[in-house]
Amino acid sequence: MTTNEQERTAFEAWAEPGDFATDKFEDGAYIFLETRCAWQGWQARAQQPSAEPFGYFRAEPFGWTDCAETDEGAIALYARPAADVLADAVKKLGLLHPFLVGYELSEPCIRNKLGLEVRKWIDGLSELYGLVEDIIAARAKGGA
Fold first, then answer.
1. Is 35 within 8 Å of 96 (Cβ atoms)?
2. Angle 3-15/33-47 helices, nearest 10 degrees?
3. For the stretch 109-133, what's the b/e string if a residue is b when 16 or more beta carbons lie within 10 angstroms of its beta carbon?
4. How far apart are CA 82 and CA 140, in angstroms?
5. Measured CA angle at 130 (ends 54, 103), to 5 deg
6. Contacts of 115 (CB under 8 A, 6+ apart)
7. pLDDT at 129 over 80
8. d(CA 80, CA 115)
9. Spatial distance between the Cα atoms of 14 and 20, rounded to a whole number of angstroms
């Protein structure tokens, strides 16, 4: 089984008990927009390098406490991704933008009254682009 097949099997095992129908067209593409979008995100996640945690913490009744990896209830704490990793992930999500814009005007979208949901995706992607541009600009000036 190839890595892509393993990822698809894992994705479908995660998706099926939830709200994502995994029905596919003959070419293997998911029929439902939500599932296609989730699969795109899953693939982008799978392509990111795995990071080592820089510490561990444990939930307490009134906050969090640093702890060792072996302590009961320890949760790994990771650094936020570097701006270039974030920008790459957003760029991959951006491949959905032209599809969503076209789909928003399509007869199936209008018939199924999905326009508002599709518009939320489009606006969310636009906001992500703006945030990434801000992060890259701050990084260029010596910030984050």
1. no
2. 130
3. beeeebeeebeebbeebeebbeebe
4. 13
5. 110
6. 104, 109
7. no
8. 33
9. 9
Q: What is the mean pLDDT of the chain?
A: 78
pTM above 0.85, yes or no: no
Please list, in sequence order, all residues whose beta carbon lies within 8 angstroms of the beta carbon of residue 56, skipping any fewer than 6 positions away: 66, 67, 68, 69, 71, 74, 75, 76, 77
> 36-92, pLDDT tens digit by residue?
888 888 887 777 766 676 678 777 776 678 888 888 887 777 655 555 666 666 667
Length of the chain: 144
Closest CA to 43 of 80, 5, 78, 69: 5
Is the alpha carbon torsion for 100, 103, 105, 109 positive or negative?
A: negative
For residue 56, what is the DSSP state?
E
CA 82 from centroid of its chain's CA atoms: 16
Q: Catalogue the E-assigned strands of 61-116.
A: 63-67, 75-77
